[in-house]
Amino acid sequence: MSSKDHKAEKNLKISSIGEKQLIKRLLSQSRSLQPNSSFFDESSFKSLSDDSALIDLGDKYLVVTSDLLLESTHFPPDMSPYEKGAKVVTVNVSDLAAMGAQPLGFVLSWGLPPDLPLTDFDDILEGVLQSCQRYGMGLIGGDTNQSDELILSGTCLGIVDKELVLLKDGARPNDVVVVTGPLGVAAAGLEFLLSPPNIKTYLKKDLKPSTQKLITDHALRPQARLKEGIMLANTGKVTSATDITDGLASELGELVEASSTNVGITLFEDSIPILPEVEEAAAALDQNPLDMALYYGEDFELLLTVPPNDLEYLKKRVELYEVGVVTSSGCMEIIDKSGKTKILEPKGYQHLG
Fold first, then answer.
1. CA–CA separation, 272 and 324 (whole Å)
2. 349 falls within a domain
3. Residue 106 maps to which CATH number?
4. What distance in Å separates the CA atoms of residue 107 and residue 92, rounded to the nearest whole number?
5. 106 lies in which domain range?
6. Is 18 contained in some domain?
7. Would you state the pLDDT for residue 251?
8. Are 266 and 343 in contact (CB under 8 A)?
9. Report field, pTM of the whole predicted structure over 0.85
10. What region, left, alpha or beta, does residue 344 occupy, with left being phi > 0 and alpha being psi -120 to 50 degrees?
11. Residue 337: exposed, middle, or buried by beta-carbon count in 10 A (0-12, 13-18, 19+)?
């Protein structure tokens, strides 16, 4: 690096490059500096680009993932303490689901404001414990410290057979791109919840009560697709997988970038599962429901690629929606409802900036 480039880089802030580029920077350095350890094999190093780390245990992998949630960033104002506790477990378990791993245990570190009511602490803990029970594991440790805002940092441990683990890097041309459920529902809920009070009053009158319940439930009480992830992994027929936390377009970009071959993906707008309730909410919010599905995230559905000959077999076991196809073009495209092909940018929700 030249002195000029070094000086320019020295003046950069992390917000100017965004979360995705920051992670790439982290990965490039960690790959070059990782120790030559017996705990790491080829897939362990591949997993650095996934949302969970793989540690070699012989015929199995220990799967480790971690997520940090901040009061100011990740919890809408309407979210209860119980729901905050449940969410920090769910976001971690979703990463395990994307690898087909069975949870083993959960570790939680807390940053606690000194004025947090004790009842709120108890409710958060109840949400954590109930969510751990739902996903078949226990709370096995953690730490507490004082902070200016509520911080919940969860680490989840899981296990999966080596031959069954799902990774991002296996998509192949002609594979079908599928998702496990409707998209944009949480986005609609969050946009509703984050609306200014005067706008929200209008929205409550304009939206059906059933629509309000559906979209806010998805925003406040997300569920990880653990059962589906394990079931799909056990078939041995999934070529790549991830969960949809930052929006469909962003996660598709992750699969394309991780692939060991030069693949692209073509998405079909007509096939993206968008519920009528999301369209209703988007209209009331003066937003595009397609944008909610493509670029927002927080749905925690699974995104997978599967060989076309195996699709019907999988659909008999798990509800799947076909949304696109893997190509050899090396780029991402979307065919809109009029049949016009457009470039699809792999952008999505950024946690920095």
1. 9
2. no
3. 3.30.1330.10
4. 10
5. 50-163
6. no
7. 94
8. no
9. yes
10. beta
11. exposed
In DSSP notation, 254-306 reads: HHHHH-SS--EEEEEGGGS---HHHHHHHHHHT--HHHHHHHT-----EEEEE
Tell me the C-alpha distance between 259 and 233, whole Å: 18
pLDDT at 51: 75
Residue 124 within a domain: yes
Could you tell me the two tokens for 29?
């350095």
| Other beta carbons less than 10 A from residue 224's beta carbon | 26
Whether 40 maps to a domain, the answer reads no
Place of tokens 């920095």: 352
Residue owning tokens 């919940």: 152
pLDDT the model gives residue 77: 84
Tell me which residue has tokens 């209209």: 283
pLDDT at 32: 57
Domain count, the chain: 2
Q: What is the pLDDT of residue 351?
A: 41
Place of tokens 């997988």: 241
Could you say which of 142, 163, 184 is where a domain stops? 163
Alpha helices in the chain (DSSP H): 3-10, 14-33, 42-46, 71-74, 81-97, 118-134, 185-193, 197-206, 209-220, 226-235, 248-258, 276-285, 289-295, 311-315
Paired with 63 in beta bridges are 54, 158
Does one domain contain both 83 and 231? no
Between CA 88 and CA 154 the distance in angstroms is: 6
* pLDDT score of 349: 58
**For the chain, which residues score pLDDT lower than 70?**
1-11, 14-50, 348-353
Reference 108, options 51, 59, 152; nearest CA is 152
- 3-state secondary structure at position 240: strand
Q: What is the CATH number of the domain that holds 217?
A: 3.90.650.10
Between CA 183 and CA 187, with CA 185 as vertex, the angle to 5 degrees is: 100
Q: Which residue has the tokens 């599905």?
A: 293
Collapsing DSSP to helix, strand or coil, 342 comes out as: strand
Instruction: Tally the C-alpha atoms within 13 A of residue 19's C-alpha that lie toward its C-beta.
Output: 9
